[in-house]
Amino acid sequence: MGKTVYMPDSTLSRKSHISSMAQYLDMYKSSIDTPEEFWGDIAKQFHWETPASPNKFFSYNFDITKGPIHIKWMEGATTNICYNLLDRNVKSGLGDKIAFYWEGNDPDDYSRLTYRKLLEEVCRFANVLKSKGVTKGDRVAIYMPMILEVIIAILACSRIGAVHTIVFAGFSADSFAERMLDSKCKVVVTTDGVWRGQKLLCLKEICDSALERCKKLGHEVETCIVIEHLPRLSASQNRNGITEENGDISPEKRNAFGSKIPWTEGRDVWWHEEMEDASTSCYPVWVGAEDPLFMLYTSGSTGKPKGVLHTTAGYLLYAASTFKYVFDYRPGDVYWCTADVGWITGHTYVVYGPLANGATSVLFEGTPFHPDNDRYWLIVDKYRVNQFYTAPTALRALMKFGDEPVKKHSLSTLQVLGSVGEPINPEAWHWYYKIIGHEKCSIVDTFWQTETGGHVITPLPGCTPMKPGSATLPFFGVLPVLLDENGKEILGPGEGYLVFRRPWPGIMRTLFANHERFETTYFKKFPGYYCTGDGAHRDEDGYLWVTGRVDDMLNVSGHLLSTAEVESTLSAHPSIAEAAVVSQAHPIKGECLYCFVTPNEDVEFSEKLTDELKRKVREKIGPFATPEVIQHAPGLPKTRSGKIMRRILRKVAQNDRDIGDISTLADEGIIEILFQNRIEIK
Ligand code: WTA
């Protein structure tokens, strides 16, 4: 580990914002020694309706033994993030600049939006939200695909101080309902449907079941605003499409295209009808620096999702500065992040970071495989993309098709290639570097979390020497520490728990309506530190290598899941007595779910049961959580006190007979049976 070092391309270094390690180290030092000055300088480019009180620029407590955890940046300041992203850029002459090129699932569908037009549309939708009674602090749920309206909806919320809570449109109705219930949202914004590759997703239908479920559980969402997206797509996309798929739903409403959409009068309204008469100006609501901007649910190791809450000023500073430096964005560049807005990467690096820098981005609705496996590279050439940001799982899936689909395209405009969501394996790194980047691009392997708001460990283009598989060094203001099991700091090379000693501006402030869980989850194990839940290794050059989760979480195709969540879904099935789930390595997804189930006495384990269980997990959590393997376990290995020994189950999944100490195991006999029933991953 850590032998091969790739130096940044010298042409890139000459023009990059941070062009040498000496410059990085210098800036890093000042960000740590004098954080108020460092971030205060960055804050100067933005508009503050009221400036921050100089003596209260930054305050925090990270030590739970000394009192409640709190983090505050720029206390006393007021601002509006939407104003900073749009009005400020239009005023400085970027009105006609393209904010987004939209590329549809079908290559025949595309459009664009300038900064000026985006501002107008945002104002109109902000007025629509106001007309539905949304005011500062109210939550608005967003369940939408990657279309321009999702950006408009997000920014309209922030313009009036409403808190958006985006739910990834791949989540099932149940997961969506759980999130709407927890956030007590007033309004939901959705879309009739969307094509992903060859598949039509009827989002409004899913949204309807979620709304119904949410109501049953005690929370009624007042308004559902629906975007009519399908009818405006190209004929080729809608060929023999929608009417059939949307079938016989009633009561229904027909959209202009003739397809049927389930409809509840009094609650559901069309976006285009509401927008028609809405004014294109809307005065921004000035909010406090520490007022909430958005919440986003992420998996928790106990199963119940956590509503990670981000606030205004610090998040703006951090999204803006990480975007500028980590992608080395310069005016005139075209940037493309393939992440969905339903994940944190979409929040910070599709919406807030790029717009805060007046950048031009690509927003892509489709998949890397449609209509062909070269779609990403086609788009890179079409828009002359300079910075490209994706996930290792996508790279691995594309590598399978060899180099030919890539070689059809020039990719000559690329300069920075980003990776996010999980450790990038050296094989994928090299493919990215050589085949996509032609050995002249900087690869930025960005480590961060929903909770961190932005990149915390990352190389900088043109600056940091790269090692395939290492996220390298901390971003400005970030103080990473490795701890051993006893909470002792590991200095120099070694491996331990990855924690942070001090907050940077973009870190989460709390879990929505549950500060206690926030403190227990992140600050209890090691008082004085924010605990990431990941392990890491530090090499002799001080480079960090994130090794993966240390809790009961796993990362499937870059999506974080808790094994507890899947276990409770499986064991809720009437034929199942007990279930245990472990993570298993997967060649494309990175990790996948390997499930052990014990059926009830009178139930026979069958293919039908396996299919049913898989379907249940899909329905309950979402398609990305579908188990790879469901193995019959007549019994589970347990300690004498009845705790399931997942360590042993992991060994079974890996077919590793070296299972270590089993002295606490109640019944040894079960192990051989489990090995015999083992299923190989295809
Ligand atoms: C993992 C995604 C290694 C890690 C932005 C983290 C990574 C979790 C990397 C957060 C990386 C993310 N190298 N591991 N470059 N990036 N992770 O909240 O386990 O969806 O804790 O945020 O993904 O996932 P989340």
From TrEMBL:
The enzyme's E.C. designation: 6.2.1.1
Membrane-traversing stretches: 140-162
Reactions catalysed: acetate + ATP + CoA = acetyl-CoA + AMP + diphosphate
Domain AMP-binding enzyme C-terminal residue range list: 565-643
Superkingdom per UniProt: Eukaryota
Family recorded in the similarity comment: Belongs to the ATP-dependent AMP-binding enzyme family.
Name recorded for this polypeptide: Acetyl-coenzyme A synthetase
Species per Swiss-Prot/TrEMBL record: Zootermopsis nevadensis
